[in-house]
Amino acid sequence: MKFIIGVAIALGSTMGGFMMHHGNPMWLFVPSEYIVILGLLLGAMIQMNPSHVLKATVKASMGLLSGGGAPTAKHYIELLQMLYELMQLARKEGVLSLEGHVNEPHESTILTKYPLFMKDHHAVDFLCDTLKLFVAGVLDAHNMDELMERDIEVIHHEELEPAHLLQAAGDSLPAIGIVAAVLGIILTMTKINQGPDVVGSSVASALVGTFLGVFLAYGFASPMSGAVTAAADAKNQYYQVMRHILTASVQGINPPMAVEIGRRNIALVDRPSFEELEEALRETKGS
């Protein structure tokens, strides 16, 4: 919703200011300029990036329409409840009791209770892969923490790839707009003997290319890159919370204290209060 509001303000204010000076919005609709700019941009992006990055960029861009995919306070409450329940199970029945849950997460009676978590397949894989090592007992707390840190770095790098592509698009669009404008000027020069009305209209059409390049760069591509980066950073924080809780649990810290350590690593805007966490854990015990 926030993204849609931003787009509406950017587009509305630009078109509104243009129309206040008696501009006709149809003057900005020059199909040839759109084809040159968007086609050249798409071709360059395809050349520069592997297919998985292109697909991830489309997915991330669509995700902005639904809030950007960043974890919310509800995501964190679910995460703390779920990890608390898993660690309580391990504490009471031994770590081997986690084996069935991590080997078949989509059939787990615990994990499937938390749909917001289960929607993120990277998070599910990260948790299950880590707990498999916990169950196997092959790593101590320090080495497991280091392994999780490296895994999070890889995930974060992948989450940032769409942002880098969008920023490259934003950096390229003004120059691509100039290419479209120059092509328009070349066409204008072939009409130089057709009178000022024809020449003036042709120059105006050419300048639409420059306008589009700059407008799309600073009104859309660069802001989208910033939004996708912010979402990726928020997801990185989500994984860091998991990492701190799991490390604390491997070190033998009891589940309530482990999830409290995780809570303290949540950004203030999404962090549940101590009382809210207690209430959530009571609900988990009750269920």
What would you say this structure looks like, in words?
This protein has 287 residues and is mainly alpha-helical. The protein has one domain (27-286). It has eleven helices and no strands. Helix 2 runs antiparallel to helix 8 (141-189), helix 4 (73-93) crosses helix 11 and helix 8 (141-189) packs antiparallel against helix 9 (196-250). It is elongated and about 90 Å long.
Query: What percent of the residues sit in helical stretches (DSSP H or I)?
Result: over 70%
Overall mean confidence score, pLDDT: 91
Our count of domains comes out at: 1
Helix count equals 11
Number of strands: 0
Computed Rg: 26 Å
Low-pLDDT sequence parts: none
Distance between the termini: 34 Å
Q: Biggest β-sheet: count, sense, barrel?
A: none
Helix-strand topology string:
HHHHHHHHHHH
Portion in strands: under 5%
The backbone outline, from C-alpha atoms, is elongated
Throw out a few tags for this protein:
single chain; 287 residues; mainly alpha; 11 helices
SSE map:
Elements: H1 2-20, H2 31-48, H3 51-63, H4 73-93, H5 99-103, H6 115-118, H7 121-136, H8 141-189, H9 196-250, H10 255-264, H11 274-286
Brief summary of the model shown:
The chain is mainly alpha-helical. It has 11 helices and no strands.
